[in-house]
Specification:
By secondary structure, the chain is α+β, with helices and mostly antiparallel strands. Helix content is 32%, strand content 19%. It binds FE2/S2 (inorganic) cluster (2 copies).
């Protein structure tokens, strides 16, 4: 399908992209300029992933791409053909929250909640990376996820609490 990029007058062809999205295979038509974030929010209605800065600086848009955390505002959807994408909507197992989600609830690790989906996805990705060996490491590795409400102490407590269970869920043996 040939379309215009609004405001630029540029004509481009839509591309078909296959994604495994929250465990379900999807084939999607995307414009070459569509970010993964806009695909999720605008095209698919998965509004759990938030748009904050849209410039890679706040972490609100963090999702898991092939198991690794990524700022979805910084990647084009067409670049992710064949990838596995997990958003906050895909973390729970049926009616059971992911351990990291449950820990955020338990520790009151949010105020307005706008940063929360990104914080949770980032924390799970960080544990999967297996590089955070201490609370200081966690603070450092989570520094790309900003919280304007300043809920950092509770966020760190939630991550600390859920680390072991998350590691087990990911099948990891290393110690974040
Ligand atoms: S919206 Fe992507 S990093 Fe801020
Ligand atoms: S809870 Fe409001 S921005 Fe983090």
């Amino acid at each position: 399908m040939s379309t215009n990029n609004p405001g630029t007058g540029i004509h481009a062809e839509a591309h078909t992209v296959a994604l495994e999205l929250n465990g379900e295979r999807r084939e999607l038509e995307v414009q070459p300029w569509t970010t993964l974030l806009d695909l999720l929010r605008e095209q698919l209605g998965l509004t759990g992933t938030k748009k904050g800065c849209d410039h890679g600086q706040c972490g609100a848009c963090t999702v898991l791409l092939n198991g690794r955390r990524i700022n979805s505002c910084l990647t084009l959807a067409v670049m992710q053909d064949g990838a596995s994408v997990v958003t906050v909507e895909g973390l729970a197992n049926g009616g059971e929250l992911h351990p990291m989600q449950a820990a955020f609830v338990e520790h009151d690790a949010y105020q307005c909640g706008y940063c929360t989906p990104g914080q949770i996805c980032s924390a799970i990705g960080m544990i999967g990376e297996g590089r955070a060996q201490s609370k200081e490491d966690v603070r450092e590795q989570m520094s790309g996820n900003l919280c304007r409400c300043g809920a950092y102490p509770n966020i760190l407590a939630a991550i600390d609490d859920a680390a072991e269970q998350t590691r087990e869920a990911l099948g990891k043996e290393s110690t974040p």
